[in-house]
TrEMBL record:
It comes from Jatrophihabitans telluris. It catalyses: (8S)-3',8-cyclo-7,8-dihydroguanosine 5'-triphosphate = cyclic pyranopterin phosphate + diphosphate. Pfam families: MoaC. The keyword Lyase applies. The active site is at 125. InterPro entries: MoaC, MoaC_bact/euk, MoaC_sf, MoCo_biosynth_MoaA/MoaC, Mopterin_CF_biosynth-C_dom. Homohexamer; trimer of dimers. GO terms for molecular function: cyclic pyranopterin monophosphate synthase activity. Its EC number is 4.6.1.17. Residues 14-147 form the Molybdopterin cofactor biosynthesis C (MoaC) domain. NCBIfam families: moaC, PRK09364.1. Catalyzes the conversion of (8S)-3',8-cyclo-7,8-dihydroguanosine 5'-triphosphate to cyclic pyranopterin monophosphate (cPMP). This is Cyclic pyranopterin monophosphate synthase. Substrate binds at residues 74-76, 110-111.
Length: 156
């Protein structure tokens, strides 16, 4: 198997995507933010000392998707055409899901993964005063569509 992000001498390189066709592409990633039932109650009631943690997490995730090439060195700067961030509360966790869309020469998997990760980090920042033991886990790509490799879906 040939690694695409290294040259023949093993040095890191940014892949040249200029010959690829522009196609509609999307990716969905998920993560789990585990915390206490008390924090979930505060999230439901908008009762955290720092304010609306869910709104902050959503905006942080969207901003992160747009800034992915600044954070992940070999990612291409591409036009992001849409980002949706869903935050679903359960008894002791927040399920984070993000879908990123573009029409470009390369996919948006890294943008979706960065989105859910930074949304989770923003949640941690907002709740750490009441739960320093909260944790972000299970960051993973769920689905990608478009491009040369077509569609991919995580299997249960």
């Amino acid at each position: 198997m040939e690694l695409t992000h290294v040259d023949s001498s093993g040095a890191a390189r940014m892949v040249d995507v200029s010959a690829k066709d522009v196609t509609v592409r999307s990716a969905t990633a998920t993560a789990v933010f585990s915390t206490t039932a008390e924090v979930i109650g505060l999230l439901r009631a908008d009762g955290l000392p720092k304010g609306d943690a869910l709104a902050v997490a959503r905006i942080a995730g969207i901003a992160a998707a747009k800034r992915t090439p600044d954070l992940v060195p070999l990612c291409h700067p591409i036009a992001i055409h849409g980002v949706s961030v869903e935050l679903e509360l359960s008894t002791d966790a927040v399920s984070i899901s993000a879908t990123v869309r573009t029409a470009d020469r390369t996919g948006v998997e890294m943008e979706a993964l960065t989105c859910v990760t930074v949304a989770g980090l923003a949640l941690y920042d907002m709740v750490k005063a009441v739960d320093r033991g909260a944790r972000l886990t299970d960051v993973q790509l769920q689905h990608k569509a478009g491009g040369r490799t077509g569609e991919w879906e995580r299997r249960p």
